Amino acid sequence: MLFKDIKLLDKDFTVKEHQYVVTEGEYIKYAGPQAQAEDGMEVIDGHNRFLMPAFYNTHCHVPMTLLRGYGEGLPLQEWLSSRVFPFEAKYRAQEKYWGAALGACELIRSGCVSISDMYFDLADYGEALYKAGMKANLSNGAVCFDDNEAYKDNNAYRDTQRLLEWLKDHRDGRIRADASIHSEYCSRKKIAAETAEFAGENGMIIQVHVSETRREVEECVARNGYSPVRYMKECGILEHPTVAAHCVWLDDNDMEILKESGTVIAHNPSSNLKLGSGIPPAAEYKRRGLRVTVGTDGASSNNNLNMMEEMHLAAMLCRGRSLDANAIPAAEILRMCTREGALAQGRTDCGLIDAGMKADLIMFDLDRPHLLPDYDTASNIVFSAQASDIVMTMCDGKVLYKDGQLLTVDEQEIKAKAAESFINICSR
Ligand SMILES: [Zn+2]
Predict the structure, then answer these.
(1) Distance between CA atoms of 417 and 266, rounded to whole angstroms?
(2) What residues flank ion ligand 1 with Cβ within 5 A?
(3) SS3 (DSSP) at 174
(4) Same-domain check for residues 244 and 328
(5) Which of 68, 121, 253, 267 has the fewest Cβ atoms nearer than 10 Å?
(6) What is the span of the domain harbouring residue 251?
(7) Is the pTM of this model over 0.70?
(8) What pLDDT digit, counting tens, does each position of 341-389 carry?
(9) What's the CATH number where 164 sits?
């Protein structure tokens, strides 16, 4: 495919006009200013179009689409114990397939090609993401309240093994297995340490929830004498590449630990606002050299999976929180939602428009009233654009979405099956 004479976000995250991009198979073959031969290629006219890397969502629970609106008005702990956990006890593997498929529709429409996800029945719902043409780092967050329980006796281990088996037949690298413990408050030190060992043995990234609410931090300090970040370090988690979701309530020590370990923070603005968890000082994290990426979290605490909205909120909140109108510049926000997210998922060949990178691209229609004048495109994309301005989503060189149509899935069927699944779960 040839994107001809198009405006794009180049590998340095600067906007360039009159560019040409050629994709071949899964990869970008050429990106630059030289006109390219058109023979045999599908040509996309770049007039009034903007091309950039697709979004990498670093914290999600994609089957939770079926819990959208189910548990409103509650703070984190009550929301989990009175609504989420009881629903999940009745949520069957095959239904998670449809929940994830519904999420895939939403993610792809809003320009996201890859998620870091934590849930259960990984192979079952991973299949839905795989069929939709997406990428995902799937993890089952170990939940354990027994000091002596071994990781290998936990369902998280068994479910991850099942995913590893499934991956033997799905080897193109789009779906990956990560290790995970749900959080400090849902784990014990032994199982956390063994999860870290397991990740080390298998070269896996670890996904965790960390310091989401002030209450979580206070209770962790009361239990252990130190913060959730320190807990992750003490258990050996942070010796491995880790994506720590939320990180709303960090002190100086925590920030130092996360910087030293190279841990990636998944900033989840909507979820933190909706559950009343707080606003993390993301600009300060960046200034201190921490790695900050952006995630939607699940659709029951957000309540959607729209990375455009998440990007917009991240850009707004860091300014409001730090009282600085240029706290994290627009181009840097774009990098956090794309390249930095890809790196957090271990996808070193993703998230940049450059020859040799995977062709994970999104294209915007700039011919919209709210995008005129096109004086500062990066700013327009972060602050003015809507997900509905995206007219194409491509993953590994394959077009998943174009001009309002999802090309890899039957959206009508998915919507019907998801609605049916919700009714069945509630009737149990
Ligand atoms: Zn979460």
Answers:
(1) 31
(2) 297
(3) coil
(4) yes
(5) 253
(6) 55-344
(7) yes
(8) 999 999 999 999 999 999 999 999 999 999 999 999 999 999 999 999 9
(9) 3.20.20.140
